[in-house]
Amino acid sequence: MSPLTPNPMPLSTPYPDSPRRAPLGTRAKPLPLIIDCDPGHDDAMAIAIAIARPELNLLGVTVVAGNSILPNTFLNTRRVLALLGAHDMPVAAGAAVPLVRPLFTAAYVHGESGLEGADLPEPAGRVHEAGAVDLIATLVAASPEPVVLAPLGPLTNIALFIQAHPELISKVSHISWMGGAVGEGNVTSAAEFNVYVDPDAAAVVFASGIPITMVGLDATHLAKMGAAERARLEATGNRAGRVFSDLLGFFEVFYQERYGWDYCAIHDAVAVAHLVDPELVAVVHAAVDIELADLQRGRTVVDWFPDRLRDRGRAASVDVAVGVDSARFADLLVDAIGQFA
C-alpha cells in the first residue's frame, strides 16, 4: 500500500497490521452488490462508482431516511440514477423512521432537500413498489452468487431485512458499511451520524454474524475532495462531472465552517471503492459494540487488543477501516465520474 495521508483526527493507540477480509471485485468476476443509501452528496458519488466500475455488478438500490426525510432521499436517489443513465436500475424506498427512535436528519450538512447545490434531472429507475426489504430479499434470493451489501446511511433497512429474512443471511457474503468511528464522532463526541440515527438497527446488524467492514470517520475524513478535484471533475467535459463539481462546492461549505478544512470528506464512496481497490483502505481486525444508552448513544466501541478481548470472552470479528490513500481515492472517484456521458 502506498503511504496513507496522516489522519487530521489521529488516535494515540497504534493499529496492528491487518489484511482485509472483505471480498474484492474483479473484471473477470464482478461482485454482486446492493447499495442502501440516503442521498446525500457522498451517497451520490458512491452510486457513481458502483455503476462505473466493471468490478461491481450493482443489482439494485434501496433508500432509507437519514440525511433527509425519506421522500427526499428517494427522489434524490432516482435523480442520481437518471444523471448516471441507470434508467432501469431497480430502486425501492424503505424505512422512513429508525427502529425505535425519532428521526434525526442532517439538513445542516446536505441542505433541506438532502442534495443541494446542483440541478439534477427528472427521476429515473425501475421502482420496486413492494419496498426496500422486499427488493433486497428478492435480489439476494435470485443471485447465483452471494451478495455484498453496501449500506451508506442508517442501518434500518438492513436490520429489517435481517429480521424478516433470516433464511437469506447466508447468501450475504459481506456488509461494507459507511458508519461509526474509533475516535471522535461527528454528531456528538461519541457518535458518527449513521449510527447515531439508528443505533438499535446497528446493534441488530452487528449481531447478525454477517462479516462486516466498518468504514468509519477515522478513514473517511481522509477521503478528500477540494478545489483541485472540482476542477478535475469540470475537466471531464460531461454532465455528471459538472453536476458533481457543483455538489462538491455546496458540500465544502460545511467542512470549512465546521472544521476549517479546505476540502470535504466523501465518506460513503469509500465503502464502495474499498470493494474494487485492494490498496485503498487500511483496516484493523476488532470487536465492535454498539452503545445504546443516551449519554453515549451511537458510539461504536472498538477493541483490537487480543489479551483484552480474550479476557472479555470476545474475538475480533469486524474489519474497521483506519486509513485511506487520499490521492488514490480522488483518482478513483474522478475516473469513475469521467466515464459517464
Low-confidence stretches: 8-12
What is the CATH class name? Alpha Beta
Order of strands, main sheet, comes to 4-3-2-1-5-6-7-12-10-11
Terminal residue distance: 32 Å
General description of the model:
The chain is α/β, with parallel strands linked by helices and 341 residues long. It has a single domain, classed as Alpha-Beta Complex (Inosine-uridine Nucleoside N-ribohydrolase, Chain A). The protein is built from 13 helices and twelve strands. A ten-stranded mixed beta sheet has the order 4-3-2-1-5-6-7-12-10-11, sandwiched between helices. A two-stranded antiparallel sheet has the order 8-9. The longest helix has 21 residues, at 239-259. The radius of gyration is 18 Å and the shape is globular. It starts with 30 loop residues before the first strand and ends with a helix.
Structural topology:
Layout: E1 31-37, H1 41-52, E2 56-63, H2 70-83, E3 90-93, H3 107-110, E4 126-127, H4 132-142, E5 147-151, H5 156-164, E6 172-178, H6 193-197, H7 199-206, E7 212-215, H8 217-220, E8 224-226, H9 227-235, H10 239-259, E9 263-265, H11 267-273, E10 281-290, E11 300-303, H12 306-312, E12 318-324, H13 326-337
Parallel strand pairs: 1-2, 1-5, 2-3, 3-4, 5-6, 6-7, 7-12
Antiparallel strand pairs: 8-9, 10-11, 10-12
Helix pairs in contact: 1-11, 1-13, 4-5, 5-7, 9-10
